[in-house]
Amino acid sequence: DAIKEGGGNGHGFSSPMDIFDMFFGMGSGGGRRRERRGKDVVHQLRVTLEELYNGSVRKLALQKKVICEKCAGRGGKQGAVERCPTCRGSGVYTRIQQLGPGMVQQTQTMCPDCQGHGERINPKDRCKGCQGKKVVKERKVLEVHIDKGMEDGQKITFSGEGDQEPGLEPGDIIIILDEKEHEIFKRSNRDLIMMMELTITESLCGFQKTIETLDHRTLVVTCIPGEIIKHGAVKCVLGEGMPVYKDPFEKGQLVIKFTVNFPTHIDPSVTGQLEELLPPRTECIIPDNGEEVALVDLDPEQEARRQYRYRQAYEEDYNHNHHRAGGVQCQTQ
Asked: What does UniProt give as the signal peptide span (predicted)?
């Protein structure tokens, strides 16, 4: 509870870590542990699939806090630090409110004058460079090396490059890679997946297609006449996938998923020629009582509405019959 509330009135804790110091014998309350670190700073970096394939160096500009050089992180003149008169050095501001006869409410918040540190710098003695904040903002440019084969969500850590604060070890700057969607390729671990469209002629009679790789080479894939590629078929090219992280000479597969575009209409005058070239149709024997029906296109929206109306009618009928059955009771002896 003391940690959640920021300390207790009269206990002399200037920070929550002082409570641990008291329990584990690492010093007395009233001072921060020197081995404490500042917060890590996390940045997201949008990268392309080409950068993850070929490797890249990106420059990232950001603002970070550094210790003020004019006052060496003191915030003012030598000896200008004084105990905060508002919280009396506790770092918390206690407020007592009368709720009724014999009832009071006590609330504690972080001291607004010292920001919970328990000490402040006299305004007339504050450093003009940092205005008593002990730190100033500085523009920092980082070179982010994106190695071949890195993945979406992978972290790149710059140790000790986080915000500085007097008495604390700086935290880290953590860069998280965010992969942009590629218009052709989709990554799956070490493999690359792409879709390739074929005409019915290419599907049946063979084809040659070119593929531009992520490092701007041209691959030629060939299907010889007589080899049929069906709709939904999956083929792969070995060694043309993503490079393996830290082993870039090893690569995964390029997976190609084929879709065959069938024509929507054929001239009836050429169907006889097609029949001579294609395998024969299965002969259909029609019985004497057979009924001819017409094929129509199915409208998904109309079908969904029809199914909805059917379910509603079924539920209403079920509820009606169930209610009638529930009103009849059998007498037993």
From this structure: none
* Residue 194 φ/ψ, nearest 5 degrees: -140, 160
Domain span at residue 126 reads: 37-80+122-179
Tell me the DSSP string of 218-236. Answer: EEEEEE-TT----TT-EEE
10-42 pLDDT, tens per residue? 444 444 555 555 454 444 444 444 458 888 889
Determine the length of the chain: 333
Backbone angles phi, psi at 8, to 5 degrees: -120, 145
Confirm whether pTM is higher than 0.90. no
Q: Are residues 141 and 243 in the same domain?
A: no
> In terms of DSSP H, where are the helices of 159-214?
200-205
Helix or strand holding residue 107 (H, E): strand 103-110
Q: Do β-strands 254-261 and 191-199 pair in parallel, antiparallel, or remain unpaired? A: parallel
Structure-token pair, residue 297: 């296109």
Pairing of β 207-212 and β 92-100: unpaired
